[in-house]
Amino acid sequence: MSAPSDSCDVAIVGAGPAGMAAACVLAKGGLDVVVLDEQHAPGGQIYKGVEKVFAQRPQDVPSLGKEYAAGQALTRRFRESGAQYRPGVSVWQITSDQEPELALGLLEEGSARMLYPKHVILATGAMERPVPFEGWTLPGVMTVGAAQTLLKSSRLLPREDVVLAGTGPLLYLYANQIRDLGIMPQAILDTAPLLTLSSGLLGLSALLACPKSVLQGMHWLWSAKRKLGLVQGVRTLKAHGNDRLSSVTYDTHGHEHELSTSLLLVHDGVIPNTWLSMSAGIRHHFDSVQSCWVPDIHGAGSTSRKDISMVGDGVRIGGASVAVLQGERVAHEVEAYLGKKDRSFLTAEPRALSRQRRLRRFLDQAFPPTNDFQLPTDKTIVCRCEEVTAGEIRQVAAGGCMGPNQGKAFTRCGMGPCMGRKCALTVSQLMADARGVSVDEIGHYRIRSPIRPITIGQLADMPLPSENTD
Are residues 31 and 120 in the same domain? Predict the structure, then answer.
């Protein structure tokens, strides 16, 4: 088998809804498209394992929901598009805009190589927001997203005594998914504040824009209240145990409650996965509404680097439907950039996309990030890799530390195996709060390549461009 070509017109990083949709448009337009995916099958997180589920467990499809089922048609269209799909590939580097040529460093089948595209589309999707609280490092505490991944990929269900805690649509979606498969959660502890008048008005706007989605959400909430032990207005969540989780405590209206459990699944929404875009030097800013870092975008998906576009939840959380629409629009924009299509072809934002944005504004208001998780107690471990607490972060900030990068010298926070992926957001928020400045002013960890583990041997064995051609 010949080695893959070391050049292409467009490289797309990520094969979720946005990446697949963009690839279909670009391939149809006659461009040489390469889709790089760390997963071993297309679909991203939202459509994870969709081909396998339809082929081997079709009886589970109704429980996973209509949006998940919609991924089968998109995945099939992507497979038939003519785009070159390369699964199991990690991108460990994007060359800076100071380099003479745009290049991606790849790790594929254990070997390092370089790919030289004319343009890159980052469709890296979302990651779960860090949820630090006292006891979250105990065995038996997982995220809802991780549990849902196990459900989709292997039909692994939680224990009967499972407790769900946090906020966001995924919390209720997962609770209803496992209920349909026979597992009744012991309780759902919702940390979101009760709806205000302004969020109610936004809800009415969302209902008019996307009635099916809003009514589905109302059904999930009704089911949680009537059948799944929903507790609202939860504060001060704590996990307890010696070697592993044994109980959970929480406050409601000033009263503490305790539940015995061996499994706690937590969730506080999702945020854009911006690690690769930050390493590429793309400008970002802190979004106060979604309380996370987002890239500066103009047009459909253009960034501060003319040779890199971004799309989907890696730009701003919008969900699968928005990601597909954005993916198609960004693909047309890239075609124009490469001279394959006149820019006059680029149309105004589709009405369907505008309607979805109205839904998202309501969800942002109804499920804001939990303050207790963003600014945890002093004894809470923030950096799991180096076991650094929130109190230590506050102490170095009070001592004059200017930001997360300088803080590494004092605490090693962000220098462990996860390279700061699990603590970066919390560290920036803690330092900003301690110093009384904005998160934008405090800044984010400086992300350097390689952003994925790679050995010196793999780098030394990397073929030169002339050695990597057919």
Answer: yes
Condensed to tens digits (0 to 9), the pLDDT of residues 437-463 reads 999 999 999 998 899 989 999 999 988
Closest C-alpha among 9, 39, 50 to residue 124: 39
Q: In what order do the strands lie in the sheet with 234-240?
A: 234-240, 247-252, 255-260
Residues 140 and 264 in one domain: yes
Tell me the pTM.
0.91
- Residue 46 sits in which domain range? 7-127+271-341
Give the residue from 323, 313, 394 showing the smallest Cα distance to 78.
Answer: 323
Lowest mean pLDDT among 201-210, 262-271, 439-448: 201-210
Return d(Cα 376, Cα 430) in angstroms, integer.
8
Q: Are residues 203 and 134 in the same domain?
A: yes
First-last CA distance in the chain: 10
227 contacts 216 by C-beta, under 8 angstroms: no
Q: 200 in a domain, yes or no?
A: yes
